[in-house]
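Dear colleague,

Thank you for sharing your sequence with our group. We've completed the structure prediction you requested, and as agreed, I am returning the results in plain text so they can be pasted directly into your records. Please verify that the sequence below matches your submission; if there's any discrepancy, let me know and we will rerun it promptly.
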Amino acid sequence: MREVKSQQSSHPFSSTNNNVLTIEYNSNENQFLINNKNPRFKNINNLTSIYCDMPSNLNYVTKDGTGYIVKPGNLNSEPLSHKNVLHVYTYTYDTVILTKDKLKVNENTEIDLPIIDSNDQFIKVLCSGIQTFYFLLTLNGKIFIYGENPDCVLGISNSDIKFNNFTLHPNLEHVSSKIIDLKCGYLFSILRCENGDCYGSGYNCYLNIGVDGRRSVDVKEFTLIEQLKGRVKQHGCGSFHTVYLTFDGEVYGCGLNTSGQLGKTYEDKLYDYTDC
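Please find the predicted structure tokens below.
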């Protein structure tokens, strides 16, 4: 895995997706800039969460349980009709909405949520563009899984298995500390722990997870990213690449680099446009 040199942003939060939409948020001033312009966001003073997902949508949720989506080219935000929203997630051109009791996949499909402890709550839903599987993350660090398991993306070694209800992940006993985040690429997923460890599973043909191994072999269960053990503060996944930010401000990237996703010009002479 190779270090990507970068300058630190002047804003506490900044993200750029697909060179289409640049979003910056200064939490001290509670101010957003989209492509260096002030957006007209509604109810922004009651913000509880904000996510910048592909393809360059900005989704946010306010304290009254209202979800908002801001699409590229539009600086206005309009509320969703759903109530008790916990998280809005967009991947490719589909949006899934997590509420307190349902996962709303589309206009006609809802999935019931499992019952969890009264001192816990669901905070995040993750999927990919193919939308055949879903992850749920809780405040206490539990992972629930649903759907198909292509390329072992769910962290289960049997790729033919299918979960018809949300099920508590059965194979995370080896994870070193509380899980605080999880991100998905196209057919791979990476979870991050409170102590800075990251674990990845799924498609790894481009070494996009950061786990050493043969490019043709999937990572069949959540496996520790040894090179960055205990070091990761944040991470993000594209379709076939991953970027890791460490506690000491270094940025590492791995995976497909056909459009400079890794932030540098480098080609693996043995396997063009990939890096780790």
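Summary note from our side: The first strand starts at residue 2 and ends at 4.

Kind regards,
the structure core
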